[in-house]
Every structure is written in C-alpha cells, then in structure tokens.
Amino acid sequence: QVQLEESGGGLVLPGGSLRLSCAASGRTFTTGWFRQAPGQEREFVARISWSAGSTYYADSVKGRFTISRDNAKNTVYLQMNSLKPEDTAVYYCAAGFKLSSVAVHYDYWGQGTQVTVSS
After folding, report:
1. Do residues 6 and 19 make contact, with C-beta atoms less than 8 angstroms apart?
2. How far is residue 39's CA from residue 41's CA, in Å, rounded to a whole number?
3. Residue 78 and residue 65: Cα distance in Å, rounded?
4. Exposure of 60 by Cβ count < 10 A (0-12 exposed, 13-18 middle, 19+ buried)?
5. What does the H/E/C string look like for the chain?
6. CA-CA distance, 82 to 64, in Å (whole number)?
C-alpha cells in the first residue's frame, strides 16, 4: 500500500504560479497528476516515470506546467505557470505500475488539493 500526500494548492491570480508536491510512502512505476473541476470528470494533467524520468502532458497544460521528481525524497512536483481561470480544480496525485494517462490504471490516490485561479 502506498500513501500519497499532496500539498501546495491555494488561490492565485491569473498569470500566476503554484507548485504542487506529492510525497509518497513507497515507490511505484508512474506518478501522475489529475484534476477535477466542479461538475466535470476527472482529467489527466501530467505524468512522470520514476525510472527514466519520462514525462507526458495534456495538451491543455503543455508549455505551462512541468512535472518533476526527487528520488531521494520520493516526491513528485507539478510546477504550474501562466495559470488560467480554467485551471481551477481539485488536483489529485496518483501512483501506479503502468505508464498511462488513464485514471483507472492508477492504484493509489491522494486526497486532493484545491487550486483556484481567480482575480
């Protein structure tokens, strides 16, 4: 069993930045970030593999968000720049053993952290 704990959410102005952290109690193959806005389905944001560090992003965040990992701390980060109001959502960290962008392929989930982009 792997436990995930997210942190770093908050309220930010449009165009601003936030960095989310996901601390894991154990190691899996892939860690991803998903988000869910009110009334919408959970959507993929970004993922990173622990071994090779390969990354993949949703088109909606490509060029603005960066996912990275710190092996020593067993922590994955999501640096979010040029934030837009449509980025407002609860952001979830997820971990699993498949290189996937599909939520059902992830075995462990954090509790989520709220990101609100508003003036």
Report:
1. no
2. 7
3. 7
4. middle
5. CCCEEEECCEEECCCCCEEEEEEECCCCCEEEEEEECCCCCCEEEEEEECCCCCEEECCCCCCCEEEEEECCCCEEEEEECCCCHHHCEEEEEEEECCCCCCHHHCCEECCCEEEEECC
6. 6
Q: So what's the pLDDT on residue 52?
A: 82
- 114 and 90 in contact (C-beta within 8 Å)? yes
Q: Which two tokens stand for residue 108?
A: 């462990």
| Burial readout 62-82 (b: 16 or more C-beta within 10 A, e: otherwise) | eeebbbebeeeebbbbbebee
CA–CA distances in Å: residue 1 to residues 19, 42, 51, 87, 108: 26, 23, 19, 30, 8
What is the dihedral sign for C-alpha 91, 61, 18, 25?
Answer: positive
Under-50 pLDDT residues of the chain: none
